[in-house]
Write a structure and sequence with these properties.
alpha+beta; Heat Shock Protein 90; 5 strands; 33% helix
Length: 139
């Protein structure tokens, strides 16, 4: 493994910026295009925002972000210990949201899928959610 970073942050909307900044930092070693960098930062932003809004419902909590860059492959893992997702398959459907009153578009997982090469979501109701995303960069 070339580079590995682990960050724990408070589940506050202003900390979503740190997730974007951290992934941009580790990606300097992969020499991504601007489009690739923007895509990854957006996917990370969506995952962190989901943890804050859906995982903790804007209450106190911690988000763990792990990033590993091995040559040209980036793996990002975002974990919260919040409410969890009852039906992951349903939650991953485009336009599905549990927070329509908050004007949520229900596109978070769709963006993650579109911008990354691989997306896996593990969740258990009452225990939290772990989102694992991979991006492969051309050498």
């Amino acid at each position: 493994m070339k580079n590995y970073i682990s960050i724990e942050m408070d589940a506050k909307s202003e900390n979503e910026f740190f997730g974007r900044l951290a992934v941009a930092g580790i990606l300097t070693y992969a020499d991504p295009t601007m489009e690739e960098l923007t895509d990854v930062k957006t996917a990370v932003s969506e995952a962190v925002t989901n943890s804050i809004i859906h995982g903790y419902e804007n209450k106190e909590g911690k988000i763990l972000m792990k990033m590993a860059l091995n040559d040209n492959e980036l793996e990002v893992e975002i974990t919260d210990y919040g409410t969890g997702i009852e039906d992951v398959k349903k939650a991953m459907e485009p336009m599905y949201t549990t927070k329509p009153d908050m004007e949520r578009s229900g596109m978070g997982f769709s963006f993650m899928e579109a911008f990354m090469d691989e997306l896996k979501v593990y969740s258990k109701k009452g225990e939290g959610t772990r989102v694992v995303m991979k991006k492969i960069f051309q050498e």
